[in-house]
Amino acid sequence: MTRPRLHSRHHAPRPTRRALLWSLLGLCTFGAYAARAQSAPEFRVLVNPENPVSSLSRDFITDAFLKRTTRWHDGETARPVDQRADAAVRKSFSDSVLRRSVSAIKRYWQQRIFSGRDLPPPELESDDAVVAYVLKHRGAIGYVTTSAKLGRAKSVSIQ
Amino acid sequence: MINDRTTKPTTVGRNTERPTVLLGRWTRSISFAASLLALPATARAEDAPDSSGPLGIEVHGFVSQGFIKTTSNNYLAEDSTKGSFEFSEVGINFSKQLTDRMRVGMQLFTHDLGPLGNYRTRFDWFYLDYRFWDFLGVRAGRTKLPFGLYNENNDIDAARVPVLLPQSVYPVSNRDFLLAQTGGELYGIVPLAAAGGLEYRLYGGAIFYDTADATSTLSNVRGPYIFGARLMWQPPVEGLQLGASAQRLRLDGDAVFSAAQIAQLQMAGQLPSDFSGPLKFQIPATLGVASIEYSAHDLLLASEYSRWWVNLTSTVPSFSVPETVSERFYLMAAYHVTPWFTPGAYYSVLFQNVDNRKGDSPAYGTPPGTPPLGRGAYQHDLALTLRYDLNAFWLLKLEGHYMHGTAGLSPTLNGNQPVSSLTEDWGVFLVKTTAYF
Question: How far is B421 from chain A (nearest CA, A)?
């Protein structure tokens, strides 16, 4: 029986090809992380000035934005507010606080919207709109870029 | 409701319509849904949070069109070997947050998948939801069944990576009686301090089954009860959840045979000589699934193991089938390479009977002398999906399956051939596009 000729053409020797492949994979991985690091602006988490908190745990913020928690510790209704899905600050907030990509969060909400479980937080167009929302609602929680004008909105630290 | 339906025996095919019955059900459902959405008038305006739509009503919808082609064996559609576009879904929902704690909503849904659906519009869900605390909420109406990780999303293409969820655990052919119930539900998340949180769902009610979707001579099919629970534990590991679901249900109905079929079955000794029909049956079933999902950053990993205990009792003993335990399992992975590109893959396996995994014996309940079930006893499914999010409202998916075994295939779609005689190794190719908002 004739064996199929697997190497009938001229290819680079196996170790060289393997090295090339690993280099390519490494470059891609490094490139992706480098791009992620470069495109990650900072953000501030805001609450209404009447809200007594000055710092929040990352878990609480995550639960509030995924609506697993709907109340502040004092019983006030939590009103999370998002920014547009393509906003850089949304990506930064999603990656570092929610620890999921914006796409994964969108999918989480699609599952809940179309199965009738819940509705996502409102998506606002700009930092100014988020600040205005936070000032209007006592239980609001949002995030803005570090250059945003906060007015009377209170910036809280993340533990 | 199903109990209001005519009990006159009918042979129901894919184009069977009963306008009067459908209109009556529609009228009642629309009245109920309209009354739910009219409730804002009684709610305190200052309690209602901001909403994006007119009158504070959120509107979301989706439209999907798919194409399915199999290398052999008709699967899901009659002509899938030639390629079929009978793979469409349309849904629109309306939700209104009445107060901080109360919400109402409804979703209209129509679909076509081979012999199923045929664009009959129905209420997918409608409910009144009141959340007392985070650890206790109540929902009443028609609600999706929380079974496993993804049962509630079985017809929501935008919410997942694969075109077809693993069919061992989430068979689309069962969507009409395993996707939603009409009744009530208790739900909540119980904090467990350092141990994370426990999400629970407890539900009970009845099942509406649309006999027009049946591919055989069934009449007066109804699900008098279903109850179950799902517990999902979210341990303090980012993105990890583990859970278990169980449900108990029963389907009752009549099988109506033509005179020719009765004569044929009497000659085969399967019906008594004095049989005058219809043949009444009951199918009690218990379904259980254990689930694990890890979803963090751009990675999704999920796996589920399920067993279904099903038996069939009939007024004609020869049609009764002793309890059969089927086994179902899948392992799935997906990765967001970029915001617009997500590949995914899964391996899924179905064994129709844990005591006959290799098909060495005939199926339970078959007459003596029936050949072994063979390839009809199992189905191994290896799937690869490429999902492209073309923009924020439009996606395209390409999917290929390598299938080994014919369990889960419909004899009706395959010229009434027994599944054990269908092609053992075959492939499925799917293209699907969905627009949603």
Answer: 34
CATH no. for residue A115? Answer: 3.40.190.10
Q: How many domains does chain B have?
A: 1
User: Is B37 at the interface with chain A, CB within 8 A?
Assistant: no
User: Which candidate from A86, A101, A116 shows the least CB-CB separation from B336?
Assistant: A101
Q: A interface mutation test: which of B63, B238, B300, B437 has the most A CBs within 10 A?
A: B238
B330: domain CATH number is 2.40.160.10
List CB contacts (< 8 A) between A79 and chain B: 49
Of the candidates B407, B294, B341, the one whose C-alpha atom is nearest the C-alpha of residue A103 is: B341
Question: ipTM > 0.95?
Answer: no
Is residue B105 situated within a structural domain? Answer: yes
Residue A50 falls within a domain, yes or no? yes
Query: Which domain range does residue B411 map to?
Result: 2-7+20-436
- Å from A98 to nearest chain B CA? 8
pLDDT tens-digit readout, B186-221: 999 999 988 999 999 999 999 987 666 555 577 888
Query: What tens digit of pLDDT does each residue of B375-402 get?
Result: 999 999 999 999 999 998 999 999 999 9
- Tell me the chain A residues in contact with residue B300 when contact means C-beta distances shorter than 8 Å: 104
| Pairing of β A140-145 and β A79-80 | parallel
Q: Is B31 helix (H, G, I), strand (E, B) or coil?
A: helix
The answer as to whether B221 is a domain residue is yes
Do A79 and B436 make contact, defined as CB atoms within 8 angstroms? no
Largest CA distance in chain A: 84
B220 vs A43, B167, B255, B321, CA distance in Å? 60, 27, 9, 20
Query: Could you give the 3-state DSSP secondary structure of residue B356?
Result: helix
Q: Could you give the number of structural domains in chain A?
A: 1
**Residue span of the structural domain in which A130 resides:** 43-158
